[in-house]
Amino acid sequence: MQIAGQHIAVLGAGESGGSAARLLLDEGARVTVLDSGDPVALREKITALEALGAKVIAGPSADSDQGRYDLAILSPGIDPATALVKNFRARGIPIIGELELAFVLCGNPVIAITGTNGKTTTTQLIEAMLRGAGVKTVACGNIGPAFSAKVREGRALEVMIVETSSFQLEEIATFRPQIAVWLGFAPDHLDRYPSIEAYFAAKTRIFENQAAEDWAIVNFRDRLPPLKARRITFSAYVRGGDFELREGVIHFRGAPVLAMADTRLKGLHNAENLMAALGAGQAWGLEFARMVAPLCAYTPLPHRCEWVRTLDAVDYVNDSKATNLDSMEKALAGETRKVVLIAGGKDKGFEFDSVTDLVAEKCRCAVLLGEMAARIEQLWSKRVACINVGKSLERAVHTARSQARPGDIVLFSPGTSSFDMFRNYADRGNQFRTIVHTLTPTNAQP
């Protein structure tokens, strides 16, 4: 790919766009960054990019820019349906994604991880496992920092570990991971894709350029298109994969490999994340004996079934990372106690009817908030008590507390995105944690 001397547009001034712009400038390109967002809100980013030599066009004028460019780099956070992108397509300017750009300039083997849920945990598990085994590597991509930001560092590494979202995979051309990890698929992002099939098609592009000598580490339960790469399969839910879970122990083709009790992770979903990491390590050429210790030492990230506090014999758990129904379902399915569920948030274009039976089985009560609250209440109220608290997380926590009984769990697992009320899932989870810690015991002395 010719970069030096080319006039290249970067669409989007966020983390990925900014990193792509810096990489392009380092490679000798003339760079213009376009973002239709508010120029005032983008002022800090604009100043930093201009100081490096990039031109920045922000606000409505970005959508109608008529500049001449040799190539455009699309940030994953920019919807291809926006006026900004349509303007470039209408003028026939070639567009690739930030993931493709970084891959072309990287020059290292890549382990890429995708799936509806579990990407970040698995990416970090693989990073910890490989580093623990003495492999020089770094995790980047959707997990942050952007792949582009790590390309220069990557030239001194043995392999890059890249968390890849469907948004990032939309605009690839030659992106080819030596090891592609497919964690599983569930409906999501129907606010961006016209159908579940379109979302699935975007994600399966991770395998598009693989060859017979590559590896695909895939969830045994999913039906995938024909793959050219060698396969290693896994499932903690059904038998038949190369990796299976038997009485709390991960087995590989019948031989015990890792006991879940020896790790700091809980739940069948995390058993699958560990299986995927072990499969990636095996594909890289490691013995299981070298992989187990760093996997056992791994500490799970916040906002993923994170215990926050026990108050009046009730556990409060922050699962704000549950931004789709599959995540919520896995959190609920793993509970043996009665649950007071706090759910709801942004309308992403899917319904909550598929989890109604599970909610009715597991939950004492459902406390609902956000854009989706009224619709969820209509679906669930005939099977479980529902309380709609509007757009107040504080009210949701206090309501959940009033409904919980000793031995119960208050589970904050929204099942959808947070952008109707919060900056992101982390902001949402942090606010939940803060509110929970303000609660005082019922027997507290004045």
Features:
Rossmann fold, 9-stranded mixed β-sheet, 6-stranded mixed β-sheet, single chain, 3 domains, 446 residues, alpha/beta, 21% strand, 15 helices, Protein-Tyrosine Phosphatase, Chain A, UDP-N-acetylmuramoyl-L-alanine:D-glutamate ligase
Helix-strand layout with pairing:
Blueprint lengths: L6 E5 L3 H12 L3 E6 L7 H10 L2 E4 L12 E4 L8 H8 L4 E3 H9 L3 E5 L4 H14 L4 E5 L5 H8 L4 E5 L2 H4 L9 E4 L13 H8 L11 E5 L10 E6 L7 E4 L2 E4 L2 E5 L8 H17 L3 H10 L8 E6 L2 E5 L6 H9 L5 E5 L12 H7 E6 L4 H8 L5 E3 L4 H11 L5 E4 L12 H14 L8
Parallel strand pairs: 1-2, 1-4, 2-3, 4-5, 6-8, 6-9, 7-8, 9-10, 10-11, 11-12, 16-20, 17-18, 17-20, 18-19
Antiparallel strand pairs: 12-13, 13-14, 15-16
Helix pairs in contact: 1-6, 4-6, 5-9, 5-10, 9-10
Instruction: Assign the CATH superfamily of the largest domain.
Output: Mur-like, catalytic domain
Large-scale geometry:
globular
Largest beta-sheet details: 9 strands, mixed
Which value, in Å, is the CA radius of gyration?
Answer: 23 Å
Averaged pLDDT: 93
What percent of residues are in strands?
15-25%
Distance between the termini: 70 Å
Structural class: alpha/beta
CATH architecture of the largest domain: 3-Layer(aba) Sandwich
Query: Which sequence of strands runs across the widest sheet?
Result: 7-8-6-9-10-11-12-13-14
Which stretches are low in confidence, meaning pLDDT under 50 for 5 or more residues running?
none
What does this structure look like?
The chain has helices at 15-26, 43-52, 83-90, 98-106, 119-132, 147-154, 166-169, 196-203, 268-284, 288-297, 325-333, 356-362, 373-380, 393-403, 425-438; strands at residues 7-11, 30-35, 55-58, 71-74, 95-97, 110-114, 137-141, 159-163, 179-182, 215-219, 230-235, 243-246, 249-252, 255-259, 306-311, 314-318, 339-343, 363-368, 386-388, 409-412. With 446 residues, it is α/β, with parallel strands linked by helices. The protein has 3 domains: 7-93, NAD(P)-binding Rossmann-like Domain (Rossmann fold, 3-Layer(aba) Sandwich); 102-297, UDP-N-acetylmuramoyl-L-alanine:D-glutamate ligase; 306-438, Protein-Tyrosine Phosphatase, Chain A (Alpha-Beta Complex), CATH 3.90.190.20. The strands form 3 sheets. The protein has a 9-stranded mixed beta sheet, sandwiched between helices. It has a 6-stranded mixed beta sheet with strand order 15-16-20-17-18-19, with helices on both faces. β1 (7-11), α1 and β2 form a beta-alpha-beta unit. α1 packs parallel to α6 and α4 (98-106) runs parallel beside α6. The N and C termini lie far apart (70 Å).
